[in-house]
Write a structure and sequence with these properties.
There is one protein chain. It is rod-shaped and about 125 Å long. The protein starts with 6 loop residues before the first helix and ends with a strand. It has 3 domains: 76 residues, no CATH class; 55 residues, Roll (Membrane-bound Lytic Murein Transglycosylase D, Chain A), CATH 3.10.350.10; 56 residues, Membrane-bound Lytic Murein Transglycosylase D, Chain A (Roll). It has a two-stranded antiparallel ribbon with strand order 1-2. Strands 3-4 form a two-stranded antiparallel sheet. Helix 1 packs antiparallel against helix 3. The protein is mainly alpha-helical. It is built from 7 helices and 4 strands.
């Protein structure tokens, strides 16, 4: 974009109009009108008719040049204004998207904070059972997810029916990336656990990731640590 004409140039146009209007076809010190040099009134009177005529022609040419520059800059201003108006139209949807993303970030941050505040351990009280514990809002809010608590506490729980007040149970939160097999488990069984894939048909994913450890997906030695691809 061309530089906008300076106020001084505008004044120069007006000055040239006045000076040029006073010239008549009627020369002294040479001046460069394009460089902003002008004769005083006394100097102008001392010029010969030929130099005076050349000076007036130079003034007229400079006036025309500055006028054309003003017109060009005015067109540039109009074009710039149209571009700015177009950008404003683009900014509004962008601002709405930014606000939406900021709201989503706030929501996710709140959810993360709530998740991090959830207990990673639970102390059994009277009349508790694994399904009751699992159904608590601050545990899994689902009574049918109790087997995960059992599997995470095999070192403490011999029989999932019997737990005792005062026992401290681990409450796993993250989805596991490894799993230690128990007797009679198959890859299909493990894939069906909700914390693994929740779908027995996904056992092939486990098999492909553990071919070096598992020869038969239906006959896995207890204690085998298998990888759970995510």
């Amino acid at each position: 974009m061309r530089n906008l004409i300076k106020p001084a140039a505008m004044l120069a146009v007006l000055a040239l109009v006045v000076v040029a209007a006073g010239c008549s076809k009627t020369t002294g010190r040479k001046v460069n009108v394009q460089a902003g040099e002008y004769y005083t009134e006394a100097q102008l009177d001392s010029l010969s008719n030929g130099d005076k005529s050349k000076y007036c022609s130079a003034l007229e040419a400079e006036k025309a040049r500055l006028k054309a520059e003003v017109e060009t800059n005015q067109k540039d201003i109009q074009t710039t204004r149209k571009s700015v108006d177009g950008l404003r139209g683009q900014i509004t949807p962008a601002e709405k998207e930014i606000l939406r993303l900021e709201a989503e970030i706030r929501t996710l941050t709140s959810q993360i904070n709530q998740y991090q505040a959830l207990p990673r351990e639970y102390q059994v009280v009277a009349n508790d059972c694994l399904s009751v514990i699992s159904n608590r809002d601050d545990i899994y809010a689902d009574a049918y997810k109790w087997p995960r608590i059992y599997r995470a506490n095999l070192d403490k729980i011999e029989d999932p029916v019997w737990i005792y007040p005062g026992m401290k149970l681990a409450i796993p939160r993250e989805l596991p990336t490894e799993y230690k097999t128990m007797p009679y488990e198959t890859l299909e069984t493990i894939a069906g656990y909700w914390e693994v894939y929740g779908d027995p048909a996904q056992w092939t994913r486990l098999y492909e990731a553990n071919k070096d450890k598992v020869k038969d997906p239906y006959d896995i030695p207890p204690g085998t640590v298998i990888t759970i691809p995510r």
